[in-house]
Amino acid sequence: LNAKEALNIRERVFVEELGLLKKEVFDEHDALCAHLLVKVDDVPAAAARLYPSGDGLCFSFIGVLSKYRGQCLGDLCTRLILYKAQQMGAKTLSANVNAAFVPYYNAFGFTKQEAVNGMVHISISPEDIIWHSACEHS
């Protein structure tokens, strides 16, 4: 998988389109993570990452380019991450997400742990994942 394409999507979505991050989008987790890249007609459209954390896995930066939003690509990224966590035998899967997205993740069975600066730490044990119809809660 081309990490450079995934990083490009992260910069375009979180820096340029949404203005949520400063220019630097690369951090210490990128060296250890698996980058997920979703293409539409062979064009990179969405990305996310999954990386080790303690005895579990964390995911972050699920981003979909504005041109491709509304096509359930973010939901696809989430489902691929959930599947990969199960496949890898992770004990836990967690993330820090914007508080507005907590109900979406709750539908999969994630539980809210704590909130700091508008971000909420969520986690789940992969065997507790609730699989529901695609985009049902998007």
Structure commentary:
There is one protein chain. With 138 residues, this protein is α+β, with helices and mostly antiparallel strands. It is globular. The chain is 26% helix and 33% strand. The protein contains three helices and six strands. The chain has a six-stranded mixed sheet, sandwiched between helices.
Q: Radius of gyration over alpha carbons?
A: 14 Å
Shape: globular
Stretches with pLDDT under 50, minimum 5 residues: none
Number of beta-strand segments: 6
- Order of strands, main sheet, comes to 1-2-3-4-6-5
Question: Strands, helices and their partners?
Answer:
Layout: H1 3-17, E1 34-40, E2 43-53, E3 56-64, H2 73-88, E4 93-98, H3 102-106, E5 111-116, E6 119-124
Parallel strand pairs: 3-4
Antiparallel strand pairs: 1-2, 2-3, 4-6, 5-6
Summarize the structure.
With 138 residues, this protein is an alpha+beta fold. It is built from three helices and six strands.
Task: Please tag this protein with its features.
138 residues; 26% helix; 6 strands; alpha+beta
